[in-house]
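Lecture notes, part 5. Sequence design as translation. It can be helpful to think of inverse folding as translation between two languages: the language of shapes and the language of residues. The source text, in structure tokens, appears below.
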């Protein structure tokens, strides 16, 4: 643990240098096809994204052509760093004209990439020195030891160096309701103190290593998920197809802004409830999903009444939309529910247009 934290500290101290305006060194053309493609989905986090890309481009693996970086932007406001990123060697940037959600953005990044392995990273992570070289060594070992290893999650740390949970059990109706009594940190995750690589039900998408063959067989992340639970769904489908899901504790990153450590504004609560309902509709018995949808409608109605009573008309309107989304999904009207969600996304973007954006309260990466 001390060695990992020391490495993180050295990396953080080097950030001012990494964020300088000098163009990164051009990768060597020795290797034509990279072994690992790093995929980053950006939304209103250009400084974080640029800082992470700088860290990645400093790695020898990129210079040797064994790794590449692909950034997909989900319709963020204009920023000078966007044009600068496009000019950096070893980096591909795709910008969309509208926010299509995290799952679709990941699928696009994977489509544009060339590596045999795909490494998904949130913009708000800090990687230690030698991280990419460690990833390459891990993929080599997995190719020999675990040919059916399709998904691998890595160890996460909070900004203060304490462990951050990154895996958990598959959600069930009973488990979801029971876990509402727990602190938010543990509602979705299980603490895992493993010192060796071990199999797990699912791992979080903020730092996720994927074998391309596995992702292609599964058809990518399910685009029905706009934000959250797409990682749980992916792991469940992978296991059903005979791929294994692993937790690898020897490699880790600092994840600075996990959802369970932040306040949840109304629009973000709508996204998380839509994701849980989508997951339940796919993987639970119909009656259990209907119970969940009913509970979400009751919750949304109570929150709508409470925020309306307090005079927060915007929040009340959002909870009204959540009630309608739950009703649409319960009635098998998935397209109508997605249209409502997309309308909320557009309204939030219009509301924040021209104003300073708190990137961690709008619609962050998974």
């Amino acid at each position: 643990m001390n060695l990992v934290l020391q490495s993180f500290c050295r990396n953080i101290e080097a950030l001012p240098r990494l964020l300088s305006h000098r163009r990164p060194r051009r990768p060597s053309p020795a290797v034509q096809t990279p072994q690992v493609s790093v995929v980053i989905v950006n939304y209103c986090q250009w400084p974080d994204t640029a800082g992470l890309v700088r860290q990645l481009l400093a790695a020898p693996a990129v210079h040797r052509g064994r790794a590449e970086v692909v950034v997909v932007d989900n319709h963020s406001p204009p920023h000078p760093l966007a044009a600068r990123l496009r000019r950096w060697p070893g980096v591909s940037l795709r910008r969309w004209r509208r926010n299509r959600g995290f799952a679709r953005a990941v699928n696009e990044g994977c489509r544009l990439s060339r590596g045999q392995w795909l490494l998904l990273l949130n913009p708000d992570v800090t990687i230690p020195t030698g991280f990419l070289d460690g990833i390459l060594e891990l993929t080599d070992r997995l190719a020999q030891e675990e040919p059916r290893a399709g998904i691998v999650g890595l160890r996460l740390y909070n900004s203060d160096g304490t462990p951050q949970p990154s895996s958990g059990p598959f959600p069930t109706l009973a488990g979801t309701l029971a876990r509402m009594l727990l602190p938010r940190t543990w509602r979705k995750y299980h603490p895992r103190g493993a010192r060796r690589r071990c199999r797990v039900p699912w791992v979080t998408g903020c730092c996720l290593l994927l074998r391309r063959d596995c992702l292609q067989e599964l058809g990518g992340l399910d685009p029905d998920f706009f934000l959250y639970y797409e990682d749980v769904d992916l792991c469940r489908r992978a296991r059903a197809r005979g791929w294994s899901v692993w937790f690898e504790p020897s490699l880790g990153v600092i994840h600075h802004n996990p959802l369970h450590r932040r306040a949840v504004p109304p629009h973000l609560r709508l996204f998380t409830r839509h994701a849980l309902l989508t997951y339940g509709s796919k993987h639970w018995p119909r009656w259990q999903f209907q119970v969940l949808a009913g509970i979400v409608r009751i919750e949304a109605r109570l929150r709508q009444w409470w925020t309306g009573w307090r005079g927060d008309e915007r929040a009340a309107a959002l909870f009204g939309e959540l009630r309608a989304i739950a009703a649409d999904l319960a009635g098998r009207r998935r397209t109508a529910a997605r249209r409502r969600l997309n309308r909320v996304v557009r309204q939030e973007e219009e509301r924040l247009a021209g104003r300073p954006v708190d990137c961690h309260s709008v619609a962050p990466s998974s």
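The translated text above is only one of many valid answers, since several sequences can fold into similar shapes. The two ends are 26 Å apart (CA to CA).
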